[in-house]
Structures are given as structure tokens and as C-alpha cells.
Amino acid sequence: MRIDVVLCDYGQVSGDKLFISGGGIDRMYVPVGKGPHVVNFCIAGTVTVPPSQAVQDHTLSLRLETEDDEPAALFGDTSGAVVGGQLHLSGSSAPAIDDQTIAFAFNFQGVPLAEVGGYEMVCSLDGEDLRRIFFRVEAVN
Question: Which residues contact 94 (CB under 8 A, 6 or more apart)?
Fold first, then answer.
């Protein structure tokens, strides 16, 4: 399986197509001061599943970590941040003969980060980390 992802301002899936706005960002800016440092972003992309693995459902998860590979602390919560969902591929009884591509978009609005600094969104399929997207949150006046 393969996962292709982009960090963007906004994403949406409609009619099996992925629509993104403001793609390819790697910096987010917050006001100088004590946290929470609130950011908005989207992780959008596609998962490509080969025919041999298209007869079962798969789990996509996103895990936010610091640049030191530690769970990211949200303001007031040190348990970390993980989201995910199921990719349902078992809708047809016919055997799959081509790769299947599933588009996704996870919009994160008002994420209260405890610290400024570097972060990585770790993208996993069925528990295997396949992609990491780095971004930095910087405080500006």
C-alpha cells in the first residue's frame, strides 16, 4: 500500500476526488505569548491499495508528534493527539484487478498546541508508519 499526503489549509473529498486549498505549507504562525498556540490545517491525500489487499478494510491513522518523536502535547492535555478512520474496500463481490485509490481529508480547526516548535504528522496504515509530514509553528509579533 502507498500513501501520498500534503499539508494544506483545507481539503475536501467529493465524488471520489480530492480538492485542496493552500497546499504544501510547512510553517504556521501564532502570536507571541503563552499557549495555547492555536493552529488550523488539513492533512489530505490518497491511499493506493493493490488488488491483493483490496478484499479487506484498512485503518488509516494520523498521530501528531514533536520533532523529537514524542507525542505532541495539546494545551491542558499531555496524552497526545491521534485520529483515524476505516477505509472500507469490501463493497464489491467482484475480485479487484486494479489498484484502488481512496482520497481523504482530515481538517483540524482550532488545535491548541502547548508549545511552538517543530511537529510531525505521522501517517499510518494498519499500524505501519508510512509517511511523516514536518511543519514548524513559529511565534511572531
Answer: none
Alpha carbons 62 and 72: distance in angstroms, whole number? 12
Helix (H, G, I), strand (E, B) or coil at 51: helix
**The 3-state secondary structure of 118-141, one letter per residue:** EEEEEEEECCEEEEEEEEEEEEEC
**Where are the domains positioned within the chain?**
2-140
Q: Residue 38: CA atoms inside 13 Å, Cβ hemisphere, count? A: 2
Written as one letter, the residue type at 90 is S
Which CATH class name applies to 2-140?
mainly beta
Helix (DSSP H) and strand (DSSP E) numbers for the chain: 0, 10
Q: One digit per residue, pLDDT tens: the chain, 141 residues?
A: 899 999 999 999 999 899 999 999 999 999 999 989 999 999 999 999 888 888 788 889 999 999 999 988 887 665 656 676 777 665 565 666 888 888 999 999 999 998 999 999 999 999 999 999 999 999 998
Alpha helical stretches, state H, the chain: none
